[in-house]
Design a protein that fits this description.
disordered C terminus; single chain; transmembrane helix; mainly alpha; 76% helix; transmembrane
Length: 230
């Protein structure tokens, strides 16, 4: 953890810039899009700092980088969501969750965790359903299924009971849960009712989630270094 901390300093600074400037969402611009995306750009740099060879040889890390790229595009679209680009942003983040799920892998399967995530995702959609109309009725259903699947794969990797967990697997798990909290807050605020301090909750949990998921990508390198020392 100590070795990765310095590489995240630009991310923390960029996140502080976003919250300090707190640009109004009522007047979207390319500058506000840049400020919003800047922390995610820093996470690109964080992963690239581990070396191109590392990213090429470890598919999970490269897929997380790809997910971060789609996330940044999604963030830019959501700056102009009131101008009709919300669905575009939704699509970008749907692709992000597919990439993250692929990065986390299907082993171990952990059907109990899958069932739990299915219940949580289904309950969220059941609550939102009466507020949805038109294409959002099925678009939100698909999106919730994708983020719920991503959450399942992140939770399944922890294996706390078997004492097989690592700090990076735990990082992916917490990151996935925070991502779900962020997106649920977006859905409640957009489709159901105004959520107090919604923007702060959404962005704080979102940036933390992306940082933790990016951190989970370095696990394969940690394992490789351990084998070399052994």
């Amino acid at each position: 953890v100590k070795s990765e901390g310095p590489k995240l300093v630009p991310f923390f600074k960029a996140t502080c810039v976003y919250f300090v400037l707190w640009l109004p969402t009522s007047s979207p611009s390319w500058f506000s899009a840049l400020i919003k995306c800047l922390p995610i750009f820093c996470l690109w740099v964080f992963l690239l700092a581990h070396g191109i060879n590392f990213l090429v040889s470890h598919r999970s890390a490269s897929r997380i980088l790809a997910g971060l790229i789609f996330s940044a595009v999604g963030d830019a679209f959501l700056i102009w969501q009131e101008q009709g680009y919300f669905i575009h942003g939704l699509l970008m983040f749907a692709i992000t969750h597919i990439l993250y799920s692929s990065a986390f892998g299907m082993k171990p399967l952990d059907l109990k965790a899958g069932l739990l995530m299915a219940v949580v995702s289904g309950s969220c959609y059941a609550f939102l359903y009466s507020y949805l109309s038109g294409p959002f009725t099925y678009l939100v259903a698909v999106y919730i299924a994708l983020i719920g699947f991503m959450g399942w794969r992140a939770v399944a990797g922890v294996q706390l009971c078997n004492d097989l967990w690592t700090w990076t697997k735990l990082s992916a798990c917490v990151g996935a849960m925070l991502f779900m909290v962020s997106d649920l807050t977006i859905a409640l605020n957009k489709f159901c009712f105004p959520v107090p301090y919604s923007r702060f909750i959404i962005m704080a949990t979102y940036y933390a989630a992306q940082m933790l998921i990016a951190l989970s990508a370095v696990e394969t390198r940690d394992e490789e270094d351990f084998r070399k020392r052994s």
